Every structure is written in C-alpha cells, then in structure tokens.
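From the shared-data thread, chain only:
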Amino acid sequence: MNMRKIIMVVSYIPAVLLSLTFLSNGFKAIRLADEFLGLVLILGFNQTISSILLLTVGIVDCFIAGLILFKSKILPGLNWRFVFLYAGLWPVVPRILEWYQTGVFPFIEAAIFISVAALAYFLCSKDHFATAPLQENL
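Structure, as tokens:
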C-alpha cells in the first residue's frame, strides 16, 4: 500500500467515527430509547408528539450518517460544509437538554463532537486534498 492510500484511509477515520455515532444514535432514537425519550419529554410534549419527534430525528440522523460517508453518491451537489456543520452542531442540542434536565452541561462531549466534525470536514474536503502540499509529492 503506497503512502497516498494510507493517508486517504487515515484521513477518513474521523468521518467514519462520526458516521457510526450518528447511525447508532439514529437507531436508538428510532427505537425510542428511554435515554432519548426522557430528553424530549422534558420539553413538555406529550408521549405521542415526543415519539414522532424522536422518530424524525432518528431518521434524519441515519440519513446524515449516510451523507457523511457517501455524500457524493447520495447528494453530490450538497456542500460538505452543511453536512459537517449539522454533524458538529446537532449533537450539542441533546447536551443542552441534558443540561436543562440535570443542571450539568456535558461540555467535553459537545466539544468532542464539534472537534471531530471539524476535523472530518477538513480531511474529507475536496479542496483540502486538491491543495494539500503532501499530495504533490506522492
């Protein structure tokens, strides 16, 4: 395996981790996991509305998981920024709800999501690979 392929494989690790997290959380939301349902119920919605909201969020999370890895096949015209901006900021919403519920803001978790999404965006961006000085030497 040449160096260029190694760099490409390693550069997609943050995107794969982010995608797996969205996929896992999306399936938890679709199956109405208690940990997620409790966060939605604190907003004051009844059980039915909370379930519908959680199902919608679960489907969107699974779609985002697919976009992170297969954007060029699913929506080639969509700008990478929008996918990774959503992927970095959306996980902060449950952290805010958790803060509202417990009084403790899980800052580290929110910072990790934002950082991994930013790193994945930078590494997966076509502009980055097109202008990377290392690529010219490979």
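Residues 39 and 71 are 30 Å apart (CA to CA).
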